[in-house]
Design goal:
It contains nine helices and nine strands. By secondary structure, it is of the alpha/beta class. It is globular and about 45 Å long. The relative contact order is 0.15.
Length: 262
């Protein structure tokens, strides 16, 4: 795909990248530098919004140094740790781009894989999500076997109870049109790891077309996820989502879009 003539038009802020960060002073800088280097080579205006989720290390200081010399970088510093879902929501609702991508601070997926997501924005698609589970000959996924096994079991249960078909609900590399992103995250309430499931469930209820595409992934040491304890909390949440969002419908999204476009 020729990204200079792709889906992102050069008008205002074309793309917002949201990066939630909690105690990421070591893993975050290479990710930010890779993103800046990549997007500087593209004919578009972008912003990188780092949401520091109450870090106790030097995460904020690292971002502030880069913020001083790069106008595209913006830091939102939360006073206390609230969780990845809260951090991503904060970033999205403060974004200005026509498209919104959220990506993990550790750079597990190379930023160039955004081109894989962009290519799927056709035929009214509003959301494109990266997947580590879809079979592909041109992507490479490196993961610990125990994490892969547990996440496959968890995703099977998610498919069974709330979100059929989607192969990987938890991949931290998802892209949205602006109106879709704001619609979903204004309604999202889950503050921690289950937020991905909630926004995808809301999207399904609203009749939004979701595309899933294989991406490259390399596990980077330092994950904050406790596979057992966090999975238990996520199981509890998925049953709450069905009752929490019974009101969502395609008509509500259409009304929101009309108001958002004014």
């Amino acid at each position: 795909m020729d990204y200079k003539t792709g889906i992102i038009a050069k008008m205002g802020v074309d793309l917002s990248i949201i990066i939630p960060a909690y105690n990421e002073e070591w893993r975050l800088p290479p990710t930010l530098l890779d993103m800046i280097d990549y997007f500087d080579g593209r004919d578009l205006d972008y912003e990188i919004i780092v949401v520091d989720d109450g870090s106790t290390d030097r995460t904020a200081e690292v971002v502030k140094r880069l913020e001083k010399i790069r106008k595209q970088v913006c830091l939102i510093q939360l006073p206390q740790n609230r969780g990845k879902g809260h951090a991503v929501r904060t970033g999205v609702l403060n974004s200005h781009g026509k498209y919104v991508l959220f990506a993990d601070a550790d750079g597990s997926t190379p930023i160039k894989d955004i081109e894989r997501l962009e290519a799927q924005f056709v035929e009214e698609t509003k959301i494109v999500i990266g997947s580590r589970a879809l079979p592909s000959e041109d992507t490479f996924v490196t993961r610990r076997w125990d994490r892969t096994l547990l996440e496959r079991i968890f995703n099977f249960c998610v498919n069974l109870f709330i979100l059929p078909v989607i192969a990987d609900t938890q991949c931290g590399f998802k892209m949205f049109t602006a109106e879709c992103a704001h619609f979903l995250f204004e309604r999202q309430q889950a503050e921690r790891w289950s937020f991905d499931i909630e926004i995808l469930f809301i999207a399904r209820k609203a009749g939004l077309k979701i595309a899933e595409v294989s991406i490259n992934w390399n596990d980077v040491p330092g994950s904050k996820v406790n596979l057992f304890l966090d999975a238990m909390g996520m199981f509890r949440d998925i049953f709450a989502f069905k009752h929490r969002h019974t009101y969502v419908s395609p008509e509500i999204f259409e009304e929101f879009t009309a108001e958002f476009s004014k």
